[in-house]
Design brief:
Bound molecules: fe (ii) ion
Radius of gyration: 15 Å
Helix content: over 70%
CATH class: Mainly Alpha
Number of domains: 1
Number of strands: 0
Structural class: mainly alpha
CATH topology: Four Helix Bundle (Hemerythrin (Met), subunit A)
Length: 136
């Protein structure tokens, strides 16, 4: 069983966004497996880097749609994205410098952040952005 299972409660009903959320969750699951299997530092480092890059890509997709359709909640939503990207940057840097190990606490943090963000914040933009064109 995967660390995070996709379920309908994570769907916001906009396919291109749901697909990106699935990919983010898959990357956290890959990180979890790598930790459990005790994969080499370079392998885990590369997974972390990919997670960071894909997170930025996904957030920028959402933010471009916020701009295009002038989403009313964009300011606070973008702040939340920025906070998480900053945290992911710190995690990556600390991991690369050897001052952080990938732990279940860290995986839980990523899991909670992503799943809560989807269910609380991303869901809020659905009434304004549903049916609009969002580039994936
Ligand atoms: Fe978001
Ligand atoms: Fe999202």
């Amino acid at each position: 069983m995967a660390f995070i299972e996709w379920s309908e409660k994570l769907s916001i009903g906009i396919k291109v966004i749901d697909d990106q959320h699935k990919k983010l969750i898959e990357q956290i699951n890959i990180l979890h497996s790598a930790m459990r299997e005790g994969k080499a530092k370079e392998v885990v480092g590369a997974i972390l880097e990919e997670l960071r890059a894909y997170t930025k890509y996904h957030f920028s997709n959402e933010e471009k749609a916020f701009e295009r359709y002038n989403y009313s909640g964009k300011m606070s939503h973008i702040q939340k994205h920025n906070g998480f990207v900053k945290r992911l940057g710190e995690i990556t840097d600390q991991y690369n410098s050897g001052s952080l190990v990938i732990s279940i606490n860290l995986l839980d943090f990523l899991n909670n952040w992503i799943t809560e963000h989807i269910q609380r914040e991303d869901r809020k933009y659905v009434p304004e952005l549903s049916g609009k064109e969002i580039n994936g």
